[in-house]
Amino acid sequence: MENFFLKLSIMLVPALMAITCHEVSHGFVADKFGDNTARYMGRLTLNPLKHLDIFGTLMIFIVGIGWAKPVPVNFNNLRHPKRDMIWVAAAGPITNFILAAVSALALRVLATLTYDGSSMPAVQSVVEPVALMLGFSVYINLLLAIFNLIPMPPLDGGRVTAGLLPYRQSEAFSRLEPYGMIIIIALVFFTDIFSYVLLPILSAGIHLLAGPQSSLVFSVTKLLMR
């Protein structure tokens, strides 16, 4: 039980921020392009309670990836539905990439300022939990961004792909959406796509962003996921 609450204290804030900002960014961009559905339904807020999906949040602590309630977007309200759909869909992963980069930069700065052995124990007792939270933030934001870019509807990558394809091919591709999550679950749990495709991309992203602090990101992730 003590181990659970330790994990919870490290994972909760980065996870909620990652999934909340991801969803809000979809609604914000849609609002700018003519669809105010998310604003009308009170979803353009950083209050995580407005976006929380209980099962999706629990999955973050169980398997390391989860989801929030999707922000409602009526693509027919967009000024240029096919083109604007690309930007609305891409907004979520782009936001997660930005959060991962900011977290990695903060982690590097924190290491430079405090991990030189000269900090007082009281300072280190505050810095270490913050560093662990930043390390998990790098991981969860990169994972959400990369996973959501899988080119399969209803994931963001699928919507981006549909927006880029010519109309006829786009319509045919979009028909996969009712079966998309079944296909994605089958790929993730019954194939090696995570080990051989997603994990190497995730690892490369962590090394690129965190640099010398990559080992901390990997170690905190390993600690939290076991």
From TrEMBL:
InterPro entries linked: Metallopeptidase_M50B, Peptidase_M50, Rip2-like
GO cellular component, one term: plasma membrane
Membrane disposition: Multi-pass membrane protein
Transmembrane segments: 54-73, 85-110, 130-150, 178-199
Cofactor(s) of this protein: Zn(2+)
Cell compartments where the protein resides: Cell membrane
Ranges where the Peptidase M50 domain occurs: 16-189
Major place of residence: membrane
Keywords (A to Z) from UniProt: Cell membrane, Hydrolase, Membrane, Metal-binding, Metalloprotease, Protease, Transmembrane, Transmembrane helix, Zinc
GO BP terms: proteolysis
GO-annotated molecular function: metal ion binding; metallopeptidase activity
Family according to the record: Belongs to the peptidase M50B family.
Name assigned to this protein: Protease, S2P-M50-like family 1
Organism name: Geotalea daltonii (strain DSM 22248 / JCM 15807 / FRC-32)
Lineage, top ranks: Bacteria, Pseudomonadati, Thermodesulfobacteriota, Desulfuromonadia, Geobacterales
